[in-house]
Amino acid sequence: MSIIAKIHGSYVHSRRVRVLCNHLASLIPEHASVLDVGTGDGLLARLLSERRADLALEGVDVFPRPTSHIPVRLFDGQSLPYPNKSFDVVLFVDVLHHTTDPMVLLREGVRVARRALVIKDHSRHGFAAGLILRIMDMIVNARHGVGLPYNYWSPVQWQEAAEALQLRTDKKLTDLKLYPSFADWIFGRSLHFMAHMSVPQTIEVLNRPSTGEPVEITTPAVPLKEAA
After folding, report:
1. What does the pLDDT look like over 131-177, one tens digit per residue?
2. If you count Cβ atoms within 10 Å of the first and of the last residue's Cβ in the chain, which end, N or C, has fewer?
3. Can you give the residue ranges of every domain in the chain?
4. Pseudo-torsion of CA 115, 70, 38, 128, nearest 10°?
5. Euclidean distance between CA atoms 111 and 95, whole angstroms
6. Burial 189-219 (b: 16+ CB within 10 A, else e)
7. For residues 150 and 122, is the Cβ–Cβ distance under 8 A?
8. Could you tell me the fold of the domain covering 3-218?
9. Cα–Cα–Cα angle for 130, 156, 162, nearest 5°?
10. How large is the greatest C-alpha to C-alpha distance in the chain, in angstroms?
């Protein structure tokens, strides 16, 4: 393990988990059931449940772990093994940029979520953004065997995806302060975001009276009500 990796593991990682937990606790609605996609060993989810005892959390991941802090089911990385509208919130924390096509999992998230997606991911924006994100990914994830397609979306791509899936961004955080101040201006800045995105509540397929053709009727998303 490199010196940089050791420093990240001993200090940066613990700070990152703590900060992420604080942000997530502020974005997830009260008394929500939450599916954590790509939960890993479930540590972040466990800390979140300790911070927010009103939440019920489960996790899914593509890699089996010998032990986990929360209940975890294996899945194939594309299809979530749950019926439609099974959870209030579907959580993606630094997962989507590890897929070759983030839209696949985003569509699954919309299918399984009753109320919202909460997403923490990267935004390829600013000077040398792609290069810095690649370096960060290699330092943190390469030694764990995590897939590294380096699929970082630009702000425009995130917006296009939200429009295509009829997601409404109720709240978005861009100054997460994941790193100590001396490093945040390089590795933080505009490269990270977290957002609460309401999903369409229902989609009914009805027949058009004049032609008999199927028509989708979407009920608008419910606004975010933040936890106390």
Report:
1. 999 988 887 765 556 677 889 999 999 999 999 999 999 999 999 99
2. C
3. 3-218
4. 100
5. 17
6. bebbbbbbbbbbeeeeeeeeeeeeeeeeeee
7. no
8. Rossmann fold (3.40.50)
9. 120
10. 70
